[in-house]
Amino acid sequence: MKCIYCANDTKVIDKRDAENIIRRRRECLSCSKRFTTYEKAHVTLTVVKKNNEQEKFDRQKLITGLQKACEKRPIPEEVIESIADEIEIELMSIGEEVTSKKIGDIVMQKLEKLDKIAYVRFASVYKNFDSISQFEKTVKTLKSN
Ligand SMILES: [Zn+2]
After folding, report:
1. Cα-to-centroid distance, 108 and ligand 1 (Å)
2. Domain count, the chain
3. How confident is the model at residue 85, as a pLDDT?
4. What's the 60 CA to ligand 1 centre distance in angstroms?
5. Rounded distance from Cα 59 to ligand 1 centre (Å)
6. Would 22 disulfide with which of 39, 112, 117, 128, CB 3.0-4.6 Å?
7. Where are the alpha helices (H) located in the chain, listed in sequence order?
8. Cα 101 to averaged position of ligand 1 atoms, centre (Å)
């Protein structure tokens, strides 16, 4: 596979097999940039939103959401990338259609394990806490864990 940035040759630096998908982390031999490729039959992941509208799954959107939640937390970019990979693989194993709610739930699960602050931040946006008390309740639940 050629580099997506400069079209030179790449090498595989990490390979992971999941159920129906092979994920390869690649590094360019020329510019040293890294990217990930996935091998799966017909991957067209469609997201069904709350209002039943459909859109193509957008990995960048997922990463932006994770980055926002993890802002100023001691979480390296590499970790965010690998969480995005895990989420993507999990979604692909569900099928070709996933609900935005399902994506949110999986993101919450991952963040809860990773960083409590990032988790609360994401939850506050995602769950649309409609009152302060609901927010405080969630924070309390976290503290007692
Ligand atoms: Zn390159």
Report:
1. 34
2. 2
3. 87
4. 20
5. 21
6. 39
7. 59-69, 77-94, 100-114, 116-126, 132-144
8. 36
Q: Which tokens hold the place of 137?
A: 């309740």
Calpha distance 11→57 (Å, rounded): 27
pLDDT of residue 95: 83
Give the predicted TM-score (pTM) of the model: 0.62
The residue segments making up the domain with residue 75 are 42-144
Question: 31 and 47: one domain?
Answer: no
Answer yes or no: do 30 and 48 share one domain: no
For the chain of 145 residues, list the mean pLDDT of each consecutive stretch of 10: 94 85 92 89 79 91 92 92 90 88 92 93 74 60 62
Strand pairing report for 46-48 and 54-56: antiparallel
CA of 12 to the centre of ligand 1 (A): 13
Residues 52 and 103 in one domain: yes
Q: Residue 131 has what pLDDT?
A: 47
45 Cα–ligand 1 center, Å? 27
* 135 & 105 share domain: yes
